Amino acid sequence: MSVSPVVFVPRGEDAVLGCSFTHPYQQHYSGKIAVKWLAREARAPPFFSCSVNNDSMEGRVGCSDSELKYSLEGDPRRGELSLLFRKVHLGDNGTYFCRVELEGAWQNIQKKTQLYVTVKPHILSLSVIEASSGPDGAPRRLQCEAEGHPLPTVTWLPASTSLMGEQVQTSQAGPYRLASSVPYLQDDVFTCRAESRLGAAEQTFPDHNTLKITLTVGGLIVLLLLLSIGFFCYMRNRARVDSPPVYGNADVVENHRLQDSDVELQLVYSTVSVTESTSSQHGRFHSCRGQQEEPAAALKPQKPLRFDGVAEAFSVARHLATSPPRHLASSPPCHHLTLKL
Domains of the chain: which residue ranges? Predict the structure, then answer.
């Protein structure tokens, strides 16, 4: 029997553990061939087993299911016992045993091989942690956790300050992980570098991308605030422009049109002027409907009207302009009324 001493394969790829056997009377052997693969220990129960009859070389071997994690890579009837691992991970790393068992007086054979899953160094995390009382007395530390196989070495690269050897604390956080930390003060800039024979990886704290994202978000917030203020000012100015003018004197201009009925209100101009005298107040009211003014003598009331105040005079004047009595409705379109208060 021959096996591959060590098989190196990157994490996530397929691996083949090579194994083959021969015996002097293989062509005359018609019994069963049992293939077994064991992990970690030589006497451990097999995690994969398969058997075929050696009475014929025709037909397919039922030990090569492509949907399983493990399957045979070859035909045991031809002495091929290699095992295929699909998408290996770090948990698959270790020692394996290839074993073949034959019926009768033929001897059983077993040999050891090694699967070595490689992982390039990479930084898992780089963050500030609250530290317990340590030899340097630093309340906060910057911790870097790195992973790789073989296990990488971690080196700190400070931007400005210098580090003493005793300030760096490194420990193994798992079979393939290292955790290293250094004292951290506000505004310090450090680079954590993990390196092995397979390559290197590094990360800087604080991350420049994080700073860019923070500035971008702050700029967007300011921009939205300015847009909101501008929109508010625009709507307020528009409301002032769209609102009808309010006159300081008694001049009122109205324009109404009813679209849903046969009645149409035409443009009405109303003017009331008040003059004061020693004995009484006189109000002159002028009303025009859609036409220019007529002479003041177009309509004169037979009898002066008296009111208790200017507000009541205005109210009556507006009512006469919009809804004149029947004897005024047939009058010329422009009316001049003199109101005596």
Answer: 2-117, 119-207, 208-243, 252-340
Q: Name the CA dihedral angle for 205, 207, 210, 214, rounded to a multiple of 10 degrees.
A: 70
Can you name the CATH fold of 2-117? Immunoglobulin-like (2.60.40)
Give the span between the Cα atoms of 35 and 61, in whole angstroms: 12
Kindly report the length of the chain: 341
Give CA 265 to chain center in angstroms. 59
pLDDT one digit per residue (tens) for the chain, 341 residues: 999 999 999 999 999 999 999 877 777 778 888 999 999 999 999 999 998 888 776 655 667 766 789 999 888 888 899 999 999 999 999 999 999 998 876 678 999 999 999 999 999 999 999 877 555 667 889 999 999 999 999 999 988 777 777 889 999 999 999 999 999 888 789 999 999 999 999 999 998 665 566 667 778 888 888 888 988 888 888 777 665 554 444 444 344 443 443 433 344 444 444 444 334 444 444 445 444 444 444 444 445 555 566 666 667 666 666 666 555 555 454 544 554 44
Q: 81 and 17 in contact (C-beta within 8 Å)?
A: no
Please name the residues in contact with 184: beta carbons below 8 A apart, sequence gap of 6 or more: 128, 138, 140, 141, 142, 190
Q: Check: CB of residue 334 under 8 Å from CB of residue 293.
A: yes
Give the CA distances from residue 299 to residues 295, 303, 306, 326, 337, in Å, rounded to whole numbers and listed in that order: 9, 12, 18, 14, 7
Is 2.60.40.10 the CATH classification of the domain at 119-207?
yes
Per-residue DSSP letter, 252: E
Tokens 């074993």 belong to residue: 99
* Matching fold, domains 2-117 and 119-207: yes
152 neighbors 170 (Cβ within 8 angstroms): no
Phi, psi of 152 (to 5 degrees): -80, 170
Alpha-carbon Rg for the chain, nearest whole angstrom, is: 50
pTM for this prediction: 0.58
The amino acid that residue 129 corresponds to is: I
DSSP state of 136: T
